[in-house]
Amino acid sequence: MAVSEQTDGSCPPLSVEERRFTDALDRPLQITGFDLTEKFLLRKGTITEDLPSFRLGSSPLIKPTKFIFQNGLSSEYSLVTTFRVRRTTKKDRWYLWQIFDQSGGSQVSVVVDGGKKVVEFSFQGLLKNTLRYTFKSRDLHALFDRQWHKLSVSVQSNIVSIYMDCKLIERRLTDEKDDLDPSGRTLITTRVEDGRPVDIELRLFLIYCDPYMAEMENCCELLEPKCEAKKTLNGTSTPPVTEKLPQMLSQPVLQSMDRCLCPAEKGDAGLPGIVGLAGEKGDTGDKGDLGEAGPTGNLGHKGESGSEGQKGIDGEKGLKGDLGPIGPVGPKGSKGDVGTPGAPGLPVDKECLKGDQGPRGDKGEKGLAGVPGQPGEPGKEGKRGRRGKSGEPGPKGLTSPSGTSEGASIK
Question: What is the pTM of this model?
Answer without folding.
Answer: 0.56
